Amino acid sequence: MMTDITELESRLSAALDRIGQGLDRLESAGPRTAQDEGLGAELDAQQQANAELEERLKALREEQDTRLAAFEARIEAQNAQMADLDGQLQALRRSNAELREVAGELREAMEAELADPALIDRAMAAELDALRAERDAEVAELGAVLSELKPLVEERK
Fold first, then answer.
1. Domain ranges in the chain?
2. Is the dihedral of CA 29, 33, 37, 42 positive or negative?
3. Which UniProt keywords apply (predicted)?
4. Which of 32, 45, 60, 140 shows the greatest Cβ crowding within 10 Å of its Cβ?
């Protein structure tokens, strides 16, 4: 893509140089001759080629800008997904830490043969929170995977 643009710019520059040389020759010459007419026709052809190259260069630049904008939007979306996934993983870690703490307290209460209904309720709530956090993290992870697969599937259509 970039080499095409560079090549077109080189060709455009060469065409402009030839046009300039032709104009210099026309200005320095006296009355128009058959050679001048030939140069005029060549000049017109070069100007036409120049216009076509400029249009092609413009189209390539627009295509490149469009692709770049799409790529930047995709990166931004991926960054947002990664931030969401990171938040879900942090919540999962907190829930698991609380679950380990409550499980340890519950184990100590069982060893001491103390039945504490509030501790059992707290352990159950911590376990439920850990399961919810794990599910939310898995959903976020699946969302990230699906967003990566979607462009690949659309390309095959």
1. 2-156
2. negative
3. Coiled coil
4. 140
